[in-house]
Design goal:
By secondary structure, the protein is α+β, with helices and mostly antiparallel strands. Helices cover 16% and strands 33% of the residues.
Length: 141
């Protein structure tokens, strides 16, 4: 099965029929701080079950100093900010649509993540594979 090559980067095979795709969707630079929004997708191809399990997420990472103000709700002056999100069951999970709405308020981008998902789904249909979309990255191991 060939994977789509019309994306900013190609899927790379890792191990055990697991393929990954990571690329920067948007970047924001403010004073001495850089924030990046990254799209990450993983899929596992199970040849015996003829099934593809697909996972995707938008990740935000940042580094540098923040200068305060309304964007990060710090007072005037300078500071360094580190953010962590923790829930009782592990990572915060949600659909990529929900994540895109949240990040769309902070970044400007015209990335169509649906296209990648639909391309993978079309390929699975073409080759007679089942398609399972998961919200839990741990299901792809």
């Amino acid at each position: 099965m060939e994977l789509g090559k019309n994306y900013p980067k190609n899927f790379i095979e890792r191990r055990g029929n697991i393929f990954v795709l990571d690329f920067t969707v948007a970047e924001r630079k403010v004073f001495l701080r850089t924030d990046r929004l990254t799209y990450s997708a993983k899929l596992k191809m199970d040849e015996t079950k003829k099934e593809i399990i697909f996972f995707e997420i938008l990740k935000e990472s940042g580094s540098g100093f923040s200068s305060g103000g309304s964007d990060d709700e710090l007072g005037s002056g300078f500071g360094f900010r580190v953010e962590k999100t923790r829930t009782t069951t592990g990572r915060r999970e949600g659909t990529i649509e929900e994540q895109s709405v949240l990040f769309g308020k902070k970044y400007e981008y015209k990335f169509s993540f649906e296209k990648i998902r639909h391309d993978i789904k079309d390929l699975t249909d073409k080759y007679g594979y089942g398609f399972t979309y998961t919200l839990n990255e741990r299901e792809i191991r």
